[in-house]
Amino acid sequence: MNLLLMNPKILNYFNFRINQFFRLFNHESDFGAIYSIGFLCIIFLNLNAYPFVFVLPILLIHLRRKDIDFVKKIFPDYWFVPVLTEYTILFLLFIVANIHYKISIHSFYIYFIVISTVFIPVYSNAEYSLIKWNFIPNTTFEWKSFLREKTLIAFIYFIGLLFSAYHPFTLILMGVFYLDFISNIYKTNENKELLESFFKNYDFSEKLKFNIIVFNLTLLPTIIIYLIMNYSEFVYLLYYILAMNLYVLLIISRKYSIYSHRIKENGYNSGIFMKYLISSFFVIPFFFFFRENYNNAIKRINLF
């Protein structure tokens, strides 16, 4: 194994991955700030009782990868070695860096999950768009279109939401990642004809209502599990539901306040995410941003 890791091709691969990692933090629109939140929580919070949390960033990084096929071509017989080594280093960094964590037998159990992560197939539209999501009403066309494209990763986020219900911290942390994920639903500008047809039958308030209903249905199982496991701490759940819904209202209203059929995407990035996340968590700033977005959205819709 040591000789294998000293292979020049593998050394070049790790050099490339390190450079790519820092480039993501500097340039990727929704990577740096959002994942920094998770990394900082993993380092400073007491996670001895919840070692599974250490695996979440590795799993999310794995699911965002687009180079697995490339790695298999470069290292056809041992492609999993550099990938597993990369995830092992990250896992060790997390458990060593956490100021409260004490290495125990649980660390080895969790490491087996890290090993299995390597062999989880990275999302491919052709492979995983098996569910057509036709049961989702056309009034929430953004959800239907997005889920058809991101079926597998949507299920993984949904499972993450279910697991997050066992503690207030994991509930809120996974909620932050989930908000980043569903923000991508509203970053695409659909064609003008589709929106003209929709807003001839519905107003913008109804648009918001339809989307909020679907969003809360995705949260419902997590809410039920949390109430069963943590009923005495239901105040956190109320705050969670409020903040999550306020954020979604902001991200939807932003989309239609700046809509232009001439551009494919509306410029969603980590700065917008952080601004709306903070506004939703502190509640009061929400009303200022939402009123501005709502009024601008109505003006644009009236031009259709």
In short, what is this structure?
This protein is mainly alpha-helical and 304 residues long. It contains 16 helices and no strands.
Provide tags for this entry:
mainly alpha; 304 residues; 16 helices; 0% strand
Description of the structure:
The protein has 304 residues and is mainly alpha-helical. It is 71% helix and 0% strand. It has 16 helices and no strands. It has helices spanning 2-5, 8-27, 32-44, 55-63, 68-74, 80-97, 105-117, 125-128, 141-149, 151-163, 168-183, 192-201, 204-229, 234-257, 270-282, 284-301.
* Percent of residues in beta strands: under 5%
Number of strands: 0
The helicity comes to over 70%
**Broad shape:** globular
Radius of gyration: 21 Å
Mean pLDDT score: 82
Number of helices: 16
List the helices and strands in order.
HHHHHHHHHHHHHHHH
The largest sheet is: none
Low-confidence stretches: none
Distance from N terminus to C terminus (CA atoms, Å) equals: 63 Å
Structural class: mainly alpha
List the helices and strands and how they pair.
Blueprint lengths: L1 H4 L2 H20 L4 H13 L10 H9 L4 H7 L5 H18 L7 H13 L7 H4 L12 H9 L1 H13 L4 H16 L8 H10 L2 H26 L4 H24 L12 H13 L1 H18 L3
Helix pairs in contact: 3-11, 4-7, 6-7, 10-11, 10-13, 11-14, 13-14, 14-15, 14-16, 15-16
